[in-house]
Amino acid sequence: MTPRPYLVKEVNGTQFAEAGPASAELPVVLLHGMMGDISNWESVFAPASEAGHRVLCPILPVYSLPLRKANLQGVVDFVAEFLDVMKIDRAVITGNSLGGHVAAMFAMQFPERVAGLILSGASGIYEVEMSTSIMRRKDRDYLRPRVAKTFFDPAHCTEELLDDVIEIINNREKAIRLIKFARSVDHNPIKDELHRIKAETLLVWGKNDEITPPDVAVTFQKGIERAELHWLDECGHVPMLEQPTAFAQLFVGFLDRVAEPIQRA
Fold it and tell me: Which domain holds residue 194?
């Protein structure tokens, strides 16, 4: 079995993955999507850490926040607290799907803590399919095409992935929180606030994303003053899973560029 390219640690009850030198002056923090986890980012740990970057990926408390805090702002607050506990003043914040929405909100609320922003398949403009729709039915035949919609290549929709989704939506506590998060995404559009993001921003989008389609990426690019947009072919909503090599190359290149002024100082 190939060893994981990161270590799983815990701080104040929060599990997180870490790779790379702790001495790196500009860490990168990875935020997964609503039904995601650390494994979504597995493709970037090795190339980023080998390039000298410290990489951190906390498990977002999507299923554990108190119901009154089970919303986007609750996760933004969690990210701020995580950075405080880790004694990180500034970082490159990276997010996919709901994690991208959280990352964008964090960049608006804590601009002094964001040295760079990487968004991929981020919610916040609009989404075609949210988790409330899959809560209505729990059989595999209904779920399979909806989960497969996440990818360009439906082969990524494995039986194991379906098992995970079915386990989540059959867990009442988890399902209730997912519905609350889905509603929070719908009720917190950020299109008119994108000008508040001042950090240099990398947008990496799948050309075949059916969840947050290409026009969503263009909206982010037009709204964020210092944004650059890169497209990945034959790629859906999770580029770091479906086009890991191309994504990692763009990811590490951006980290190198953002970290360079700090390293020269």
Answer: 7-128+190-264
